[in-house]
Amino acid sequence: MNQTIDVENLHVSYYGKSVIHDVNFSFEPGNLVGIIGPNGAGKSTMMKAVLGLTPRDAGNVSFIGQSVEAVRKKIAYVPQRSNIDWDFPIIVKDTVLLGTYPKLGLFRRPKKADKAWALQCLEKVGMEDFAHNQIGELSGGQQQRVFLARALAQQADYFFLDEPFVGIDVSSENVIINILKDLKEEGKTIFVVHHDLGKVEDYFDELILINKNLIGAGPVNEVFKADILQQAYQTPFSVMSGMGVGV
Amino acid sequence: MDFFQDMINYEFLQKALITSTVVGIICGVIGSFIVLRGMALMGDALSHAVLPGVAISYMVGINYFYGAVLTGILTALGIGYISENSRVKNDSSIGIVFSAAFALGVILITKAQSATDLQQILFGNVLSVRSSDMWLTIIIGAIVLLAILLFYKELLVSSFDETMAAAYGLKTKVIHYAIMVLLTLVTVASLQTVGVILVVSMLITPAATAYLLTNRLSTMIALAAFFGAISAVSGIYISFIYNMPTGPVIALATTAIFVATLLLSPKQGVLWRALRKIKQRQTISG
């Protein structure tokens, strides 16, 4: 059986305009994969297309030989913070509890054990003191940690995080990256849309570099090179300095 | 105590009270989801769009319920189709479809029946509720409440984070259209109480009031149902005592509760906020 996560020939368009053109990549499970590229490169769109949340014009996606539909309950998705209504009447611990819903299925309510598990996940991200706060009362970094706790509660095999490090504090960023690295050690596969080039080499094992087309995919040391980056960002990258700024 | 004496004596008043209480409750419940999903305009649209269905039902001589549900669902599908398949934004497609449906409905009703019926459908007349209408409302209420109870989890997660829900395999489009169907049912049930034009006040205002008071969806739903029912009952009482049109009085009752909450609620209340700000300034300058 095929032991990889494969994306072949992925095409997405929006009202006739191509936004993702012929993207192909393949990764072994147990990797922390960064998806990078300039603003408007289609990073989030590509992630959603891989997950089948945005209609694809063409493309095959398989998770260890299975279709996305077959592995849905093993997929945890963390949206961009800007896509969430932070005024929603929900408190932190109930937000994490949502992560137990996929396994519960229809008609079954979360039980004591599910609630205990959600609390455990909240402790992993160090947010248990905020269990009873409404989610809008938290800082950006705290919100992101709560959403990661929800993803952990899903006990997924595949994690997809859309820009988790945007606008958050350093300590939250460290908590999150350490948990992602732990997940990788457990054999989980994590895809992270990311745009701060400064930390790429510390954070990821594998990279997907896109700008509508696939520019490069593979181990960080093979993709994260000045000449390849230049193709994606279309600005000269002589030295690695100045890369921390959002190009 | 005339009102209570009359309530015991007159069956029509009892029916009006029961029907409008049920309507208040289910409007609050479904309205909570409408408010949280940012679909207030959709609620307004669907309530207007049932009109041609009501007219056609009159013409062919069937219960207005069937026609209303049919055109309500067609409208929801039409709006969805336009906003998904063109660059026209959702609020614009709502405007296009519902004004057309409403216009068609007004023409059909004036052709089919006298102008008094149009008046009644537009503004409601809860004091003329028949037993069959009351039972229809109760049945619709039971269906709506049961659906919300059974699918509470799915409604919560898809209202809060639709992409995450879709990613783990929830059929979020099915949920969206199911809510549209429930909304149409609630609108039909509300026709006689507040009428087509003011249904939106029962849907949105009690739910928005509850939204100001709590950080929990379940509490919000319960409060919205409570405010809806209180508005309905007090609206009937006031309109009966002072001889005013019932629908508009109920609508204004929801508004009165909203304004009081907006001013006085402990967390979001405008008054408390202003007071807190003054105190803060004093501590800083002092």
Catalogue the unreliable spans of chain A: none
Report the CATH architecture of chain A: 3-Layer(aba) Sandwich
Morphology of chain B: globular
User: What is the CATH fold-level name of chain A?
Assistant: Rossmann fold
Output the structural class of chain B. mainly alpha
Which chain pair shows the most residues in contact?
A-B, 33 and 25 residues
Summary keywords:
heterodimer; A: 247 residues; alpha/beta; Rossmann fold; six-stranded mixed beta sheet; three-stranded antiparallel beta sheet; 10 helices; 9 strands; globular; B: 286 residues; mainly alpha; ABC transporter involved in vitamin B12 uptake, BtuC; ABC_BtuC-like (chain B); transmembrane (chain B)
General description of the model:
The complex is a heterodimer of chains A (about 250) and B (about 290). Chain A has one domain (about 5-235): Rossmann fold, CATH 3.40.50. Chain A is built from ten helices and nine strands. Chain A has helices spanning about 45-50, 70, 90-95, 100-105, 110-125, 140-155, 170-185, 200-205, 220-225, 225-235; strands at about 5-15, 15-25, 30-35, 60-65, 75-80, 160, 190-195, 205-210, 215-220. The radius of gyration of chain A is 18 Å and the shape is globular. Chain B has a single domain, classed as ABC transporter involved in vitamin B12 uptake, BtuC. Chain B is built from 15 helices and no strands. In chain B, helix 2 runs antiparallel to helix 11 (about 170-190) and helix 4 packs antiparallel against helix 5 (about 65-85). The N and C termini of chain B lie far apart (about 55 Å). The model of chain B has no long low-confidence stretch (mean pLDDT about 90). Classes of the chains: A alpha/beta (about 250), B mainly alpha (about 290). Chain B: Pfam families: ABC-3. Chain B: Belongs to the ABC-3 integral membrane protein family.
